[in-house]
Specification:
Layout lengths: L2 H33 L4 H15 L6 H8 L3 H13 L3 E6 L5 E6 L1 H22 L4 H25 L3 H19 L30 H6 L8
Helix pairs in contact: 2-4, 3-4
Length: about 220
Amino acid sequence: MDTDDRRRQRTRELGRELRRYFVEARLVTHAFADRHGLHATDLHALIEVMDAEGRGTPTTPGRLRETLGLSSGATTAVIDRLERLGQIRRVRTGSDRRRVYLHYDEGAMELAREFFGPLHERIYRVVGEFSEEEIAVAHRFLTAVTDAAADHRRAVVGDGRAVADHGRAVADHGRALGAADGDAGGAGFPGGAGLPDGAGSPDGAGSADDLRVTDDRPVTAT
């Protein structure tokens, strides 16, 4: 086996392990969503709001719309629903109060800490088994792989029609994989993009506007 073959083999092995992790992460987040009556799109939006705030750059409805691949009306419906559930809040800034930022509600944040805190501690203990140099390499690898997946996503869903077609295909694929959640070989990324040696699955539902907003079934952990 030459160097290229070995690297491809290692890539497939890493891909399987990453998918195995994301299967577990997906089931954990779906358990949280089920407990709090969130739909698949709600969960995706909530994660985006939470991550943006964690980076110190709260998102806006416009940026959330671009991330979710929804229309303005569909995005507003998601935001309204999350606000009614007490998960997020709109904050207006500027002299004309027209600029709106989305923030994770403090009460919702506390619920998330209570639910995900033990998981964080488990992972913290695992990280403690590695050196600073090993952690730096792992971080660089995960960042690069995520960027590659994001580049591919943008390439395949670059225009509006492609987004709708992709959403319908993803919904069908997601439903098919939903039945195989118990199989370690049959799942993928919560955020959507796959790795070599198997296609990924988005976290719950497709990205077509009608499909994502009118699907009233809560996310469940199976």
